């Protein structure tokens, strides 16, 4: 039986590891985040409910989003061991140019609503780390101001075709003149999806001062102070709007767009053309035949048609059919770097992430976006090493099994 004794100072001292407290509250918050889920938790506390729900929510019963996340959770990784994984390389070529990581920042609307730094913060992070960033037609910073904020970033412009075709053409020309390298045409929004969280929250752009929002504002004073003391929250490509998001989409977007309109856009746009919102093999084949340089398998993050096909499930079939002729990207349901690795193994050239960096933006502005990238990078790198691969090119379908 061991005898008890008082510890010697020489034995006790090494256990004392005092940490200098960080004075910056944003840094303290972000230090607590080790996963995208942690950033989501912080974001929920930092932003009004309507704003958080706009980002976090999906359409109707949110089945599409839940299915996408469940399918990623059902992935089984099949590692190979006794491999030298001392020098993992996460870089890939996207649209003919290098990207330091196998994902892009997806286009998101109303980004300054999540945090007053908005799109400028996101493009600056994209520029520093060397990945593409897609600015949304429904962005809250202009095409030109984003270009100024990230002059050396790889910038893409996401387009919704408006009923006013002349206005759409003007946006496309402005993007080309400002140095955007790719146009991302979103094709899964002929009309607005039924985003019931927004309906129940009375979500409007800009947020209206109602008894509910005033009460919520009392619990999130920093968000409201930033909103009211910075430039007005408006659409960068729309002059003025006082209604709900769904009302705006249904008023502005053209539900008559068909595959033939791709010819018009292909002739108008000199750069790379990406088609986002593909949810079937026939549509993938059609857009490739009409000049798409890349397709994004996406159901809009579950925000349009509920119970839509799950992009990860479509991926192997679409890659097998068009992967030799065009690049195939994937979004919807991605919450970790491991999810991205799974999609790459099943044939995706890269992924698009949206909510992941928006949670970071809400949690801590530009530093929060950078934190989301740090988390995803670490998870991608570690997952690759544990799978026994040193590069994205070494990933194959044999590395994953979808368990049912």
TrEMBL record:
This is L-lactate dehydrogenase (Cytochrome). SUPFAM superfamilies: FMN-linked oxidoreductases (SSF51395). Keywords: Flavoprotein, FMN, Oxidoreductase. Gene3D superfamilies: Aldolase class I (3.20.20.70). Belongs to the FMN-dependent alpha-hydroxy acid dehydrogenase family. Pfam families: FMN_dh (PF01070). The keyword Flavoprotein applies. InterPro entries: Aldolase_TIM (IPR013785), Alpha-hydoxy_acid_DH_FMN (IPR012133), FMN-dep_DH (IPR000262), FMN_HAD (IPR037396), FMN_hydac_DH_AS (IPR008259). Residues 28-404 form the FMN hydroxy acid dehydrogenase domain. Its cofactor is FMN. It comes from the Bacteria. It comes from Actinoalloteichus caeruleus DSM 43889. PANTHER family: 2-HYDROXYACID OXIDASE 1, S -2-HYDROXY-ACID OXIDASE-RELATED. Transmembrane segments: none annotated.
């Amino acid at each position: 039986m061991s005898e008890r004794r008082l510890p010697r100072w020489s034995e006790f001292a090494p256990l004392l590891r005092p940490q200098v407290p960080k004075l910056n509250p944003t840094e303290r918050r972000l230090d607590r985040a080790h996963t995208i889920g942690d950033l989501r938790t912080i974001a929920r506390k930092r932003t009004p409910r309507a704003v958080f729900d706009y980002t976090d929510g999906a359409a109707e019963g949110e089945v599409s989003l839940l299915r996408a996340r469940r399918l990623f959770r059902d992935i089984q990784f099949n590692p190979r061991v006794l491999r030298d994984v001392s020098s993992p390389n996460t870089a890939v070529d996207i649209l003919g140019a290098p990207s330091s990581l196998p994902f892009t920042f997806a286009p998101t609307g109303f980004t300054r609503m999540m945090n007053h730094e908005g799109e400028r913060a996101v493009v600056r992070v994209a520029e520093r780390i060397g990945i593409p960033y897609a600015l949304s037609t429904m962005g809250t910073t202009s095409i030109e101001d984003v270009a100024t904020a990230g002059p050396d970033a790889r910038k893409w412009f996401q387009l919704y075709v408006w009923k006013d075709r002349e206005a759409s053409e003007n946006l496309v020309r402005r993007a080309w003149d400002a140095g955007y390298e790719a146009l991302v045409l979103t094709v899964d929004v002929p009309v607005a999806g039924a985003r019931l969280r927004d309906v129940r929250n009375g979500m409007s752009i800009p947020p209206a001062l109602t008894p509910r929002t005033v009460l919520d504002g009392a619990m999130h004073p920093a968000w409201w102070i930033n909103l009211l003391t910075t430039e007005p929250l408006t659409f960068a490509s729309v002059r003025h709007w006082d209604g709900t998001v769904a009302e705006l989409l249904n008023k502005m977007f053209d539900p008559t767009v068909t595959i033939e309109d791709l010819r018009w856009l292909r002739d108008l746009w000199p750069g790379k053309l990406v088609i986002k919102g593909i949810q079937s093999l026939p549509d993938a084949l059609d857009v490739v035949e009409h000049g798409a340089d890349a397709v994004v398998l996406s159901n809009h993050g579950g925000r349009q048609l509920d119970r839509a096909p799950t992009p990860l499930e479509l991926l192997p079939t679409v890659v097998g059919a068009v992967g030799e002729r065009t690049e195939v990207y994937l979004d919807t349901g991605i919450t970790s770097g491991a999810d991205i690795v799974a999609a790459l193994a099943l044939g995706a050239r890269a992924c698009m992430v949206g909510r992941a960096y928006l949670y970071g933006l809400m949690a801590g502005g530009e530093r929060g976006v950078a934190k989301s990238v740090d988390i995803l990078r670490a998870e991608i790198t570690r997952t690759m090493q544990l799978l026994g691969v040193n590069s994205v090119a070494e990933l194959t379908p044999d590395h994953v099994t979808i368990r049912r």
